[in-house]
Amino acid sequence: MKKAIYPIIVGLLVVAAPFLMDAFRLNLLAKYLCFAIVALGIGLAWGQGGMLTLGQGVFFGLGGYSMAMYLKLQEGGLPDFMVWSGVEKLPALWAPFANPVFALATAILGPMLLATLLGLLVFRQRVRGAYFAILTQALAAALVILLVGQQGLTGGTNGMTNFYDLFAWDLAEDSTQRGLYFVVAVVLALLYLGARQLVKSRYGRLLVAVRDGEDRVRFLGYDPATVKTVTFAISAGMAGLAGALFVPVVGIISPALLGVVPSLELVVAVAVGGRYALAGAVLGAVVMGYAKTAFSEQFADGWLYLQGALFILVMTLAPKGIMGVIKRARTA
Fold first, then answer.
1. Furthest C-alpha separation in the chain
2. How confident is the model at residue 295 (pLDDT cuts 50, 70, 90)?
3. How many CB atoms lie within 10 A of CB 51?
4. 165-216, pLDDT tens digit by residue?
5. Among 155, 177, 168, which residue's Cα sits nearest to residue 250?
6. Residues 57, 220: contact at Cβ < 8 Å?
7. Cα separation of 85 and 34, whole Å?
8. Which of 16, 80, 260, 329 sits in a 20 to 30 Å window from 140, CA-based?
9. CB neighbours of 318 closer than 8 A, spacing ≥ 6?
């Protein structure tokens, strides 16, 4: 009974949020939940599988740009940034994204395919630990350089913004944003339940075994590279879907949102929440997102220091994150 209390409380808070918050704050909460989806994937890959990925912004960006391309093509004619860049004809790369099914499929399957290819190349060479983390970080930096350099295709440094309609719904309307909030919340809940079942399954136990003793798992006849690649691909798909949801919620996608620093912030959020618990990853993303907003509003010149201090405080007093504190309180 006690275990059921927490999901019930969370569910009630999610349903009550639109009635307790104004449109601006609700939109911020929807943004935090988008980041929570990415954090959930990081918690699965890092917390359960031991893969410290510092480049989830890559997969988030692929999903975000896929959705942004679809939204831009709904306006008719050339996207505004192409006109400013002197592009006279819609690039062939853009044409398929006029189809929403293709755009959404690309947002999810594109990151999963990239993660699968990267995983097969890297994990079979037994690259792990800090080397894998640095590799994913370099991938994020490379993607930012690519996006900035392709002004006519991606909008360059400014990225893409000024989205107006989603499936004939006006994105500027409060009712549309409330609907998007519920969509994001439901998607997060379903992904969390799916990830939880995965962790409890035989595969999940094998994943944890790979995290704790990869060589021992290999000696037992299993292939750790395959196990890690599948998990890495799932986490990438989550990040891509989060990016696709983020664009209509926030109204912008740019290289600044998917580089090395945003990727590191998400890892920090997972660590604060507790990387060994999937709920901790979600909680950490929401807490750090809220802290970032609150600190930046109250202390415009020093909010980064306060955010860093929060991370140090949690890691010093609670090495297993906020969820570690909650579990100790429940067993006390």
1. 68
2. confident
3. 26
4. 888 788 888 888 999 999 999 999 999 999 999 999 999 999 999 999 888 8
5. 177
6. no
7. 31
8. 80
9. 324, 325
Q: What is the pLDDT of residues 110-137, one digit of tens each?
A: 999 999 999 999 998 888 888 898 999 8
- Smallest CA-to-CA distance from 60 within 199, 159, 192 is with 159
Residue 242: count other Cβ atoms within 10 Å of its Cβ.
31
Task: Tell me which amino acid residue 149 is.
Answer: G
Please give the structure tokens belonging to residue 40: 């959930």
**Number of Cα atoms under 13 Å in the Cβ half of residue 65:** 27
Q: Would you say 278 and 196 are in contact if contact means Cβ atoms under 8 Å apart?
A: yes
> Distance of alpha carbon 184 from its chain centroid, rounded?
12
Q: Which ranges of the chain does DSSP label H, i.e. alpha helix?
A: 2-20, 23-42, 56-73, 80-84, 100-123, 130-149, 151-154, 174-200, 202-219, 224-250, 260-273, 278-298, 303-317, 321-331
Cα separation, 229 vs 227, in Å, equals: 6
